[in-house]
Amino acid sequence: MRDERSPARLIVADDHALVRGGFRAMLASEPDLQIVGEAENGRRAVELCRSLEPDLVLMDVRMPQMDGLQATRVIKAEHPATAVLMVTTHASDDYLFEAIKAGASGYVLKEATKQQLVDSIRVTLRGEPSINQELAIQLLRRLAREAHESANSPPAKRLPELCEPLTPREIEILRLLARGLKNRQIAEHLVISPGTVKVHVQHIIAKLGVSDRTQAAVRAIELGILPPA
């Protein structure tokens, strides 16, 4: 878990130098965000993640040598705690579904204002989805349907079991989290404090080896911890 007292370390991956420069200019005045590397293609983004271990990658979709989705899959497999925020000119449900499956936390539009970009990055770094609640739930339901449909098919690559299993309380919170509830709503539902929920969510994310709440729900569905319903 990163030290929140230090600036979050970012990598910008885009094949256009002008776009990378624009992101750098927009984030230059934010003391809690620091761009530590730039990549002109997906392969270079993977290499930088291996050497720099950033907290978050702003990942363009279409790049030479390796596109954003493929690079995201590699980065999340090697560095699960690194968050990936996809950068796109338009957001379709099909694309977002594939991005979430690849391991992305969400997306930000290329024409976003500085405040929208900064807000999306900070939300993602807090482990929260940078997409709205309704869309996140739709994507998780679609993933659950796919998991259900493939249940009777020949198994693909088996995911490793958890080193430390989730407790009954953590599974209870995970179910509510997957329904799109925020910490405060979960706390009210379970009659516990929001601070307690926050600690449980941090433990869930750590045990599942992911970077955020959305990917925690995705991994739980893949592992069969959450029923595909």
UniProtKB/TrEMBL annotation:
The modification 4-aspartylphosphate is found at D60. It comes from the Bacteria. The keyword S-adenosyl-L-methionine does not apply. One of its GO terms (biological process) is regulation of DNA-templated transcription. Residues 159-224 form the HTH luxR-type domain. Residues 9-125 form the Response regulatory domain. The keyword DNA-binding applies. GO terms for molecular function: DNA binding. Keywords: DNA-binding, Phosphoprotein, Transcription, Transcription regulation. InterPro entries: CheY-like_superfamily, NreC/VraR/RcsB-like_REC, Sig_transdc_resp-reg_C-effctor, Sig_transdc_resp-reg_receiver, Tscrpt_reg_LuxR_C, WalR-like. PANTHER family: TRANSCRIPTIONAL REGULATORY PROTEIN NARL-RELATED, TWO-COMPONENT RESPONSE REGULATOR. This is Two component transcriptional regulator, LuxR family. It comes from Rubrobacter xylanophilus (strain DSM 9941 / JCM 11954 / NBRC 16129 / PRD-1). The lineage of its organism: Bacteria, Bacillati, Actinomycetota, Rubrobacteria, Rubrobacterales.
